[in-house]
Structure formats: structure tokens, C-alpha cells
Design a protein that fits this description.
The structure holds two protein chains of two kinds. By secondary structure, chain A is an alpha+beta fold. Chain A has two domains: about 80 residues, Roll (Ubiquitin-like (UB roll)); about 90 residues, Alpha-helical ferredoxin (Fumarate Reductase Iron-sulfur Protein, Chain B, domain 2). In chain A, about 30% of the residues lie in helices and about 10% in strands. Chain A is built from eight helices and five strands, in the order ββαβββααααααα. In chain A, strands 2-1-5-3-4 form a five-stranded mixed β-sheet, with helices on one face. The model of chain A has no long low-confidence stretch (mean pLDDT about 90). Chain B has two domains: about 140 residues, Succinate dehydrogenase/fumarate reductase flavoprotein, catalytic domain (Flavocytochrome C3, Chain A, domain 1, Alpha-Beta Complex); about 290 residues, 3-Layer(bba) Sandwich (FAD/NAD(P)-binding domain), CATH 3.50.50. In chain B, strands 4, 5, 8, 9, 10, 11 and 19 form a seven-stranded mixed β-sheet that branches. In chain B, strands 1, 13, 14, 15, 16 and 17 form a six-stranded mixed β-sheet that branches. In chain B, strands 12-18-20 form a three-stranded mixed β-sheet, covered by helices on one side. In chain B, helix 2 packs across helix 11 and helix 5 packs parallel to helix 15. The longest helix of chain B is centred in the N-terminal third of the chain and has 21 residues. Classes of the chains: A alpha+beta, B alpha/beta. The interface between A and B is large, with 71 and 87 residues. The structure holds flavin-adenine dinucleotide (FAD), iron/sulfur cluster (2 copies) and FE2/S2 (inorganic) cluster. The site of flavin-adenine dinucleotide has 46 residues of chain B, from helix 5, helix 8 and helix 15.
Chain lengths: ~220, ~550
């Protein structure tokens, strides 16, 4: 490992860190209090470490995950501590009893989606590089399978929601479509059979087939 | 230890035909000599509490035997909220309990340390076990789980969980969770099934190789949309509340945003705070999320809840060893299930890669301890031969091991050319708070579900059983707790139980200035006393009294 140290600014703090460290590691190693903007800390799946990054010599601000992004000299980093507004899209999957209503449901729960102005803000914001804008379009047009695939790897970091000027909440729309599809169509045959066997009492578990619990403990 | 360049040359020379090294150690002896539970800090008996005398990992014992973080004066005048059910912890177990209790009509508060969903659950990759196949049965699931746990588990809990499996999957599907199917045929199709290490039939159901992410985003949205659940993000529990008979009647949570304590009084309290990987036992790196600091365990024990198997931890064999800044991150068992081999610095295999996790991890530690490991930039480990796997199955990275490819990119290596270097990583707390079939702990009013609980996985957990455990027991605890919704509140709710605890510590000669739980790892640079300005408040309270 190289011992190269780089300096950068995180949350207004001047920080020195080995060039291989992630932004979040650099922040905590420099004594910064780390009680928020962190979750999985390295796997890139919880979305809590979302941050705005400006690199030296560039005027662009990019959205990144601090636990996955290595530090660079001259970087400027600010975390996006963003709290969701209270439940603006209310729905109850159980009231969606059949697939016929799904287009109406999308329109009803996410009425803003049809006014997407194709500004691409969501695409630029997505640290996962998903085709968010396309996903919204698919959903509005009723191409639900395509929409479902677009959002398959979404980590629900909410950056697209934050970026959208039309308040569309693309990731929540995507999740709505995904949830509705699973809840309405996933009916695996062997699961249905097994449930019937268990619920009718035909299948039980006999705990006497194995020896009694081991008494001795490993020293 | 063998330098990287030399080891790599040995690996390439062997060209996939690795001889198998056999040191003739029986499994019991291998575990005894090399498993981290038995080397490093040896288990010690607990000195105080209901389990006094029980063996426990020394660092965990020290934490369990700490004094409370707060005193009566710190919470005098704090805001009090009332609810039917308090759920502590926003991972899979907490969400399943909250949704079920709220579904029964109970009012629920869910308090969590980070943001809802920041948890070990969201990180799970491999999948969830449920015996749905024609060639499988709940009976087999029960027997496999019990045997893999070295016959230390509570048989009734295991049997109940195995029978719950199919219904847990249906519940998740109803909430909108997707599972991989064979041939992409949802209605009337078949679920894709994989075989976990130690199983007699394929039983792992999954969503690609990020099953936990799919599960957690669905649960998080469902909880967020449920009118019966009030979520308190960034509010770690720092102590439980007791009535005058020692029962649990809620918790003291600390609002990180407002820097103040809130008392949440509840008829029933469900602890779902997860595991303890961030204690970095024996100096090991961990695969766990940032909040896994054993808080629930400490609070429950202090109040008198019985624990079990506290000397038994799971170290996942394939944590990343190099580069150092990613150390501990997980390479899923799926890589070995697909056929990737483990190779030491001499170009030899040294263990059947599909043996139980404790055996494989111990074998890797043996290679490193005996000088046959690979050394690179101060990090030690053995090779996981991903290039060899790719030679056999050219599309494996694109089709099944998607997350592994992503990980290799983060390690800045080309996985088709360069092997990964792996070393065991602290992964799972096998034991925990002893519970009954509804998740009830031995303290009245207190439930514990998920990784914080014990008795289900014995002394070794199979892949896929933790995700099932959190749904099965989370739902049961939620339903049982909701039955209390018409009971009156306890007349008193305070932290009186800590006085008795402090007396016990003093009698045992233990210091009162060691405080717990940690709430955050040391590198979080968080000090509750400073953050809440406890010293100033205590001084003011003193002054007021004079
Ligand atoms: C990388 C990884 C991969 C895994 N893969 C699999 C797999 O493929 N299959 C499988 O079955 N299992 C797997 N596991 C294990 C499984 O994910 C966990 O055991 C399980 O999800 C635990 O669920 P839980 O709800 O009990 O705890 P968690 O999901 O960890 O949730 C605990 C919650 O409590 C919060 N909390 C902690 N302390 C406090 C406090 N003081 N106050 C308030 N809140 C608090 C935490 O922040 C967190 O939100 C994996 C684990 C990891 C780490
Ligand atoms: S789609 Fe939105 S929520 Fe999902 S990862 Fe991209 S920016 Fe984050
Ligand atoms: S940010 Fe909103 S308006 Fe802009 S393209 Fe995305 S969804 Fe459409
Ligand atoms: S901490 Fe979870 S994505 Fe970075």
C-alpha cells in the first residue's frame, strides 16, 4: 500500500488521509464525529453516506457514496443529510387486488410522474448510475416490467427525489411498481403446495429425530 | 508468511491443479486450535448478573459488566411519549415486528440508531432459507440447522422456525418482495433454489446477490407508509425503563439530532438491535454495519435477561484482506458455492471449501499462523482463486456473482486475472438473549428478536437462516406483544434497576466508571456524556439541590 497522504476538505474540516482511504474513513480517522451519514460503511447498499463532491480543477458537483469513494487531493465533500418529507405518496398494496388497476394506481399515487420534464436531474444525481428518467417514463407508459428492471439495483438513497424539480420521487415510484408486481403476480407453485401441506397439518416437524442438546461446552 | 509476488507465481505455476494439503487434524482439534473463539482472548466466566459463571468472550464480558451510561438526574424532566409497543432497532427483525403489531391495531413507536433500514439486514447477499422444494421438507430444514449448530440450539425454536419458513416467504411476497424464479415465470413458476453449506437439499431463496437490499427496501417503505408506526430515526436506546417489579416498560432513547433524552413508555418492548461485529472481537475486522455494537445485549442483561452461547461467534471465512481500507468486507459464500478454490501461499489447497464456515475459517487461520499465508502490504490472508473459477465458468461474474465483480473493481483488481486475498471476518453473533417461541425474554414485558436473540442457531449459523429468523420471530413477537394493547400502563417507569446493578458490580469488585453500551464504535468519536452535556447538567442538578 502506498503511504501517499492527500489533503481534502470534508464538512468544512481540513483532513489528511492515505490515498487509499474512502471519504468516510478519512472523516472518522481525522476525529470527525460519525453518528449519521453512515450505515453499511463500505458495501454501498444503504445510501446513507450520500455526499456532494467537487474535485480539484472541476466546477462540477457530483453525487457519490462516501463509503465507496476514495479520497483525492483537493476534494471538497459535504454530506447530504436529507430527511424525507412525511409520506406524500400514500398507498396500500392490499387494496390493489388485480393487475388491471395498476396504471390508474400509478397515476393516482404519483400524479406528478406524467409531468416529467426530462431534465435529467435524477440521472445525474444517481450514484448507482441507473437510468432513472427512463424508469419514470416506463412506469408512466405502463411498461411496468421495464420500470421494474431499471430500479432493480436502487439503494433508495433518495438523491433522485432530492434532485427532481417536479417532485416525482422517482425511486419511490420505482419501488411502488416493483412491490405491486411481486405482490400481484409472484405465485410460485411449490410454495403454494407447501403452504397447503403445512396449513392442513399434513406436514409437521418431529424434534425427537435428533439427539438431545449437547450438554458439554467447548472449553 | 509468503510475499505476494512469490505466492502469485506459485498459484500461476499450479495452473488450477492445486494439490490438497492435509495436516490430519480432526475437525474438533482444528476448531480448538485455530478458531478465534478459542485462541486470542479465552472465554471467561461472567462475574455478575443472571448468568454469573457462564462462559463469555472476554471483550463481551467486559462490556456486559459495565455501569449504565446515564443516571436518574440525567433524565429528570425529559419528555415522555406513551405507546402500546416500542420496537428498538430498524433492521429486518424490528420492521417485521412493528408491521405485525401495527397490523393488529397496536400503536407502535420504532426507535432506531441510524436511519430506518441502516442495518445488517440490508447488507445480506446470499439469501433466505425456506423448505419449499419437493425434495425438501421442514423436517430436513430443522435437522440440518440443528446439526450445523453443533446441537446446541433450542430444538423447539428451530422446529417452529423451519415450519414458519414458507409462510415467511408468502408474507414477504405480499409486501412486495421479489424472489428469483426459474425461467422468469412468476405465476405458477418455481423459485430458484441454492444449497447452503451444510444442507441436504437446495433451500436458499434469493433476489440476485442482494437479497437483503430487496428485503430491506420493501420493509422500510412498508413501515414508513404504515399509519400505525411512528419512526424515530437517529434515536438510539441508551437504557431500558423498569417498573418497580423489574419488568420492562419502555426505554430511554437519546435524540442525536436534538441532543436530549426522551422516555418512551410502552406496554411491551421489543429489542431488535442486531449483532455485535463492530466490537471487533479479538482484533478482527467485521462484515457488519456501523451500528452493530451489541447495545441491546448489554441493556437486556443489565435488566436481568438470561443470555446463552455468549462464547460463540461466527467468523465468515472470506472477508477481504487486501486492500486494507476494505478489510472485513464480505465476499459472499456464493463464490465458493460456485466453485472458487482457496489456495495458500505455496499454491496448495488446504480445506474442502464447502465445509461449514467455522471449519473453513479455522483452516485459513491455521495456514496464516503456520506461515503459509500470503502477505501483501502488511495484510495477511490466502487466495480466493476467482480467475480459476472464471476459466471454468466464463460468464459467472456477469450472471451470478454481480456483487463480487463490483467488489473486485473497488479493490482495483481485474478478477479474471488476479486472485482476491481473503481472511476471516467477524460476521455473526451466534448466541444472544434467550427467548421462547414468541420472542419473550426472561424479563417480563421484554421481547428480543433477530441477531440480538440466541438459541436458534446454536454454535454455528447456516447461511440463509438469519434472514428467516428475523422474519419468523419478528412477526411472532409483534403479534404476541400486540395482545397487550388493552392492559393498563405500569404505574412507574424509571431506571431503578440500575441501582441494583451498580450494587452487584461493586460487590464483585468491578469498576463503576466503565460505562456501556458503546452505541458507536470508538472511531465514531462519540461521547454521550459530552454530547448531552451530562457533566454540566449533573452539576446544575447538584447546585439546585443545595
Ligand atoms: C454482509 C452481511 C451479509 C449477510 N448475508 C446473509 C445472508 O445471505 N443470509 C442470511 O440469512 N443472513 C445474512 N447475514 C446475517 C443477517 O443479515 C443478519 O443477521 C440479520 O439481518 C440481522 O437482522 P436484525 O434485524 O436482527 O439486525 P439488523 O438488521 O442489524 O438491525 C438492527 C438495527 O438496530 C439498530 N440499533 C442498534 N443498536 C441500537 C440502539 N441502541 N438503539 C436503537 N437502534 C439500535 C441498528 O442500527 C439496526 O438498524 C449477513 C450479514 C452481513 C453483515
Ligand atoms: S434511483 Fe434514486 S434512490 Fe435509487 S440509487 Fe439512484 S438516486 Fe438513489
Ligand atoms: S429529475 Fe424529475 S423531472 Fe427531471 S428527468 Fe428526472 S424525473 Fe423527470
Ligand atoms: S455507508 Fe451504506 S452506502 Fe455508504
Amino acid at each position: 500500500m502506498s503511504d501517499d497522504k492527500v489533503s481534502l476538505v470534508i464538512e468544512g474540516r481540513e483532513v489528511e488521509a492515505p490515498s487509499t482511504a474512502s471519504i468516510i474513513q478519512a472523516y472518522s480517522a481525522s476525529g470527525g464525529q460519525l453518528v449519521t451519514n453512515v450505515g453499511c460503511m463500505g458495501q454501498g447498499v444503504c445510501g446513507s453516506c450520500r455526499c456532494m463532491v467537487r474535485r480539484e480543477g472541476s466546477r462540477d458537483v457530483t453525487m457519490e457514496l462516501a463509503c465507496e469513494t476514495p479520497v483525492e487531493a483537493g476534494m471538497q465533500v459535504a454530506f447530504v443529510s436529507y430527511f424525507q418529507p412525511k409520506r406524500p405518496h400514500v398507498y396500500d398494496l392490499e387494496t390493489l387486488t388485480g393487475g388491471w388497476q395498476i396504471l390508474d394506481a400509478i397515476d393516482e399515487v404519483f400524479p406528478q410522474a406524467k409531468s416529467c420534464r426530462h431534465c435529467g436531474g435524477c440521472d445525474r444525481a444517481c450514484p448507482r448510475g441507473l437510468d432513472v428518467q427512463k424508469g419514470v417514463e416506463y412506469a408512466v407508459q405502463g411498461d411496468v416490467l421495464a420500470a421494474k428492471d431499471v430500479f432493480s439495483e436502487c439503494i433508495m438513497c433518495n438523491l433522485c427525489t432530492l434532485a427532481c424539480p417536479e417532485r416525482i420521487r422517482p425511486n419511490h415510484l420505482g419501488l411502488f411498481v416493483r412491490r405491486a408486481l411481486a405482490a400481484l403476480t409472484l405465485r410460485p407453485v411449490e410454495l403454494m403446495r407447501r403452504l397447503r401441506q403445512i396449513e392442513s397439518g399434513a406436514l409437521t416437524v418431529d424434534t425427537s429425530t435428533v439427539d438431545a442438546p449437547r450438554q458439554e461446552r467447548r472449553p | 508468511m509468503i510475499p505476494y509476488a512469490e505466492a502469485l507465481a506459485a498459484l500461476r505455476r499450479a495452473g488450477g491443479a492445486y494439490p490438497m494439503r492435509d495436516d490430519g487434524l480432526a475437525v474438533a482439534e482444528l476448531l480448538q486450535r485455530h478458531h478465534p473463539d478459542n485462541i486470542g482472548g479465552k472465554p471467561v466466566p461472567l462475574a455478575v448478573g443472571v448468568n454469573a459463571g457462564m462462559l463469555c468472550q472476554p471483550e463481551v464480558a467486559a462490556l456486559l459488566q459495565t455501569n449504565a451510561l446515564i443516571d436518574d438526574v440525567d433524565i429528570a424532566g425529559a419528555e415522555t411519549l406513551n405507546t402500546d409497543i416500542l420496537v428498538i432497532g430498524g433492521g429486518g427483525a424490528g420492521c417485521a415486528a412493528a408491521l405485525t403489531a401495527a397490523g393488529e391495531g397496536a400503536r407502535v413507536i420504532l426507535a432506531t440508531k441510524l436511519l430506518l433500514g441502516d442495518s445488517n439486514t440490508v447488507m445480506a447477499e446470499g439469501g433466505i432459507q425456506a423448505a419449499v422444494g419437493e425434495d425438501d421438507s421442514p423436517q430436513r430444514h430443522f435437522e440440518d440447522t440443528y446439526t450445523a449448530g453443533h446441537r446446541a440450539a433450542d430444538r423447539d425454536l428451530v422446529a417452529q422456525m423451519a415450519l414458519d419458513g414458507p409462510d415467511a416467504i408468502r408474507w414477504l411476497i405480499k409486501l412486495g418482495m421479489a424472489f428469483d424464479t426459474v425461467e422468469d415465470r412468476p405465476f405458477g413458476g418455481s423459485l430458484k433454489r441454492k444449497t447452503p453449506g451444510g444442507a441436504t437439499a437446495p433451500r436458499i431463496l434469493s433476489y440476485r446477490d442482494f437479497t437483503g437490499l430487496e428485503m430491506m427496501r420493501v420493509l422500510r417503505e412498508a413501515v414508513g407508509l404504515h399509519r400505525g408506526v411512528q419512526v424515530m430515526d437517529r434515536c438510539p436506546a441508551v437504557e431500558l425503563l423498569s417498573d418497580d417489579r423489574g419488568g420492562c416498560v419502555g426505554a430511554v432513547v437519546y435524540s442525536l439530532e436534538h441532543h436530549r433524552f426522551v422516555l418512551v413508555r410502552a406496554r411491551r418492548t421489543i429489542l431488535a438491535t442486531g449483532g455485535s461485529g463492530r466490537l471487533h472481537l479479538n482484533g478482527f475486522p467485521t462484515s457488519n454495519h456501523y451500528g452493530a455494537t451489541a447495545d441491546g445485549l448489554v441493556l437486556a442483561y443489565r435488566m436481568g435477561a438470561k443470555l446463552r452461547e455468549m462464547d460463540s461467534y461466527q467468523y465468515h471465512p472470506t472477508g477481504i484482506a487486501h486492500p486494507a481500507h476494505l478489510a472485513g468486507g464480505l465476499i459472499s459464500e456464493a463464490a465458493r458455492s460456485e466453485g472458487a478454490k482457496l489456495v495458500n501461499g505455496l499454491g496448495e489447497r488446504f480445506v474442502d471449501e464447502l465445509k461449514p464456515r467455522d471449519v473453513v475459517a479455522s483452516a485459513i487461520l491455521r495456514e496464516c499462523a503456520e506461515g503459509r499465508g500470503v502477505a501483501r502490504d502488511g495484510q495477511a490472508g490466502v487466495f480466493l482463486d476467482v480467475p480459476g473459477l472464471v476459466r471454468e465458468k466464463p460468464d459467472v461474474l456477469a450472471s451470478t456473482l454481480v456483487s463480487l465483480a463490483h467488489l473486485a473493481a473497488k479493490c482495483r483488481i481485474d478478477p479474471t486475472e488476479e486472485p482476491m486475498i481473503v481472511y476471516p471476518t467477524l460476521h455473526y453473533q451466534n448466541g444472544g438473549v434467550a427467548i421462547d417461541g414468541s420472542g419473550r425474554a426472561s424479563v417480563p414485558g421484554l421481547f428480543c428478536v433477530g441477531e440480538v436473540s440466541g438459541g436458534i442457531h446454536g454454535r454455528n449459523r447456516m447461511m440463509g437462516n438469519a434472514l428467516l429468523d428475523i422474519i419468523s420471530f419478528g412477526r411472532r413477537a409483534g403479534a404476541k406483544a400486540a395482545e397487550s394493547a388493552t392492559e393498563p400502563y405500569a404505574s412507574r417507569a424509571g431506571i431503578g434497576h440500575i441501582h441494583d446493578w451498580q450494587r452487584q458490580l461493586t460487590l464483585a469488585g468491578l469498576p463503576l466508571d466503565a460505562r456501556g453500551p458503546h452505541v458507536f464504535p470508538a472511531y465514531g468519536n462519540f461521547d454521550l456524556a459530552a454530547d448531552a452535556r451530562l457533566t454540566a447538567r449533573r452539576a446544575a442538578a447538584q447546585g439546585g439541590r443545595r
